[in-house]
Amino acid sequence: MRRLSPALLLLCLPLGGCQDWQSVLNAQGPAASSLARMFWIFVAVLATVWALTMIALLLSLRRRRPFDADPLATNPATERRMTITISVAVGLTLLTVISLTGLSYAAQKALFAHKDGSLTLLVTGQQWWWKITYEDSQPNRVFTTANEIHIPVGEPVLVKLESSDVIHSFWIPSLTGKMDAITGRQNQLQIQADRPGIYRGQCAEYCGLQHAHMALLVVAENKEDFERWREQQISSAISPGDEERQRGMEIFLSKPCIMCHQIRGTDAGGKIAPDLTHVGSRRTIGAGTLETTRGNIAAWIVDPHGVKPGVNMPTIQLEPSEVQPLASYLEGLK
Amino acid sequence: MRRLLVMSLTALALAACEREDREYRANPVTSETNEKIALSPLSAGPSGPTEQRSGLGKEYEENAYHISQGQRLYVWFNCNGCHANGGGDSGPALMDDRWIYGGQIGNIVQTIREGRPNGMPSFRGKIPDDQIWQIAAYIRSMGRNVPKAAAPGRKDDLSPGPAEQRRPPGEVIDGGQTPPSAQMPQ
Asked: Domains of chain A (ranges plus CATH)?
């Protein structure tokens, strides 16, 4: 027991992490709440069953039979008692299994029930980042961003999931369960956040070398903040304010960056890599790999494979004096 | 004793398990490899034209990772816009054995870098050098001019032909002609 208790304590330690921004037990939306409720019901019921079984087992181990008793002897009273005990146990087992099945079924019905919402997103999983397109009936209000989803609080948001290369899985533990993004087909999922906050999500289907660095953030905010954010994202990139940023823009447009990246409002129109129109307004770069700071942007440009080995961003030939203006320009794209 | 022998031999055999190296990180210092490729034996003066090849090609065309990256970049950078899936369209076919500007990997790299008359644009400064080499290696794999083990085993899109890996080994014949669609009207 003395050796067991530190081990038990250590096992309990990770539970402290369950209040984090990426946790199934930190449910912040209706779907996640119903999943968390299911989880706790299963834990409680199964723990009770386990405890009862163990108690019965311990009792039977402790009870001694008279040593000289005839093992084949039967006694009608004992037989009757045993029949009743076993029937009750079997009945209880059936009841447990049936009621848990029923509960799961009810939870699933709630999980997959589609509510009408005004917002539809197209999320495309790519090695190793998320492309996010906000759909709208007006074509000029459609825009694309990457790795950061903003949603209004309390509204169901429809997420259409696609993939451009291999199978990925979209998972925001605090909001809902997993759903795979599969090439050549579209899966749909609804997310809803009940409280404002930032919830982290992660690709949940192994998709290659940098699967672990394929995160996304869901920022749930109130309606006005969300509308303000959307208007700002729809707009083209702001023109560089000072001379350094102007030079940064010229460097960006004259280097291979434009083959893959788009900055709306400039000549850069690549559609392969994340849209950088408002990259400075996003919290992270490299799909949750680094925080968005000028230094991190510079590090990412100079040595992407040092930060995220195998990423599809190539090393680009830059003069040392070109790094600072370029990072400054990108950081300024709020 | 016998079991020990078998075990040690198995352990010895495991030592041969070497995974192919994947070079993710290009050398950030050199801007581009030095290729000087003569397309014709003619030159002014008594000696022939000077040629210089960096010899980097082997590293790329014998490496499955580089070739499959090239396969992806081929579509990303819209090579298929003119050359289709290698069968040629407004640009010449790439999977056949005829090479207007030479079929060695260095020649293909030069073609992508410098561009060629009648339509092929120059990608110098637009595509980083290591990616040009990757694309060239993939183009070599279309006519199976790369080792079977390194050639791509599957295609991402529907294709009427077998994957590069299952094509018969090809050869390179210099020559060929510009397709009529790419010629200047007379």
From this structure: 19-58+78-222 (2.60.40.420), 243-331 (2.60.40.420)
